[in-house]
Design a protein that fits this description.
Purple Acid Phosphatase, chain A, domain 2; alpha/beta; binds fe (ii) ion; 10 helices; 15 strands; Serum Albumin, Chain A, Domain 1; six-stranded mixed sheet
Length: 394
């Protein structure tokens, strides 16, 4: 199983005034599980893999190590982590991520963090070393603040007292505003009090001639028409209004685990794929000298590509199985449909245009269209075959 890694690149404008070129890396949704909390052969771990949506959990320590060595070698100005740092909010994993972040900061690389929906008070936090899962010590809201506040919140110009939201200057004319969309009071949205605070900070930035790039875990704009509920901010309209009034042109998000970019009325939302899912990517955002233009492209961690692709294929097969079982088609046709479906899912998550790999996959595409276009997966696959997943205005 081999797959050629293809580029992903987007660009846009920013309303900065002057300043040197800056390079920001974005690593989303690593869902790190501490090696002390699982054993690969344990039944408890294998049962998690069986319901896991394609994450290469067992190799994330090495994937993170590859990322860190690259960052230490190439030295971006900052590394942004838009949440879901841990698999399911296990304290041990958060402590280990904190140690990794400290290694970057020790070399002068700024680290900026916001929480994801899996990071705080998650009831699935588990130890997976035995036959069955047992509860792991969870990350509480206090623990998240204690361990992560030095990466953004404490180094901020201003911080929101109601959430883990902060605004950090990267240059005289450029700030990053990290929104916490995972408070206990309003999970999946941004608190009213936080919006009032953000509106004030955006007005202050504008008065001081600074552009602001925002970051949040949930998607600001729809990134995939089949994945809206639970992915897009609950109070999207209100937040869009505030960002528009504050002249924000670029937002960075994660959570949906796929690579995509959507735009609406001069505002772009780039969602960076999960670093734990094939093709194990991270985003590189370059702010050009003068701070009037940005360019985003994706880089890859290369060491575990084959294992990640295998995991994605197995996951898609599981997703598609029920639908395929219910179709009145021959076994040979079912095989073609399975293959096409797996290839489509890989392309959607990687942000690539879908190209069938051979005649078998092409036949599978035709069958999805003719025999299953009224099912959920049929609609999803037919839409992706037509490259609708690449559309930037949804
Ligand atoms: Fe998430
Ligand atoms: Fe996630």
């Amino acid at each position: 199983m081999k797959m050629q890694l293809r580029p992903y690149e987007r660009h846009g404008t920013l309303n900065g005034r002057a300043g040197n070129r800056l390079v920001l890396w974005i690593l989303a949704d690593p869902h790190f599980l501490s090696p002390s909390l699982f054993e690969e052969t344990a039944d408890a771990f294998q049962s998690i893999l069986a319901v896991n949506s394609g994450k290469l959990i067992e190799h994330m320590p090495e994937v993170m190590e590859e990322f860190l060595s690259r960052a230490l070698r190439e030295h971006p100005d900052a590394v942004l982590f838009p949440g879901d740092l841990t698999l399911n909010g296990e304290l041990e994993g958060l402590l280990e991520m904190g140690r990794m972040f400290s290694r970057l900061e020790a070399e002068g690389i700024r680290v900026l963090v916001i929480p994801g929906n899996h990071d705080i008070d998650c009831r699935y936090a588990s130890v997976l070393t035995g036959d069955v899962a047992s509860p792991a010590e969870r990350v509480t809201r206090d623990a998240f603040f204690r361990e992560m506040r030095r990466f953004g919140y404490d180094t901020a110009d201003a911080r929101d007292e109601h959430s883990f939201s902060w605004i950090v200057p990267l240059a005289d004319d450029l700030r990053i505003l990290g929104f916490d969309s995972n408070t206990n009071a309003f999970p999946g949205g941004i608190l009213k009090e936080t919006m009032t605070w953000a509106e004030k900070e955006l007005a202050r930035a504008e008065a001081e001639g600074a552009a602001v790039i925002t970051m949040m875990h949930h998607n600001l704009l729809v990134q995939n028409r089949f994945m809206e509920t639970g992915f897009v901010l609950k109070n999207q309209a209100e937040v869009l209004d505030v960002l528009k009034r504050g002249n924000v042109t670029l937002n960075l998000s994660g959570h949906i685990h796929l690579q995509h970019c959507s735009g609406r009325k001069g505002l772009t939302d780039i969602t960076t794929e999960s670093a734990a899912v094939f093709p194990l990517g991270f985003g590189v955002l370059e702010i050009a000298e003068g701070h009037r233009k940005w360019n985003y492209h994706r880089e890859y961690m290369t060491q575990y590509q084959d294992a990640a692709l295998r995991r994605m294929y197995e996951t898609c097969e599981r997703f598609l199985q029920d639908t395929l079982d219910q179709l009145d088609v021959s076994e040979a046709d079912r095989t073609c449909m399975r293959k096409a479906g797996q290839e489509v899912c890989v392309a959607v998550f990687a942000g690539w245009a879908y190209r069938p790999s051979d005649e078998e996959a092409k036949h599978g595409c035709r069958l999805w269209n003719e025999r299953a276009s009224d099912t959920f997966w049929g609609k999803y696959i037919v839409s992706a075959i037509g490259q609708k997943h690449m559309e930037e205005t949804i």
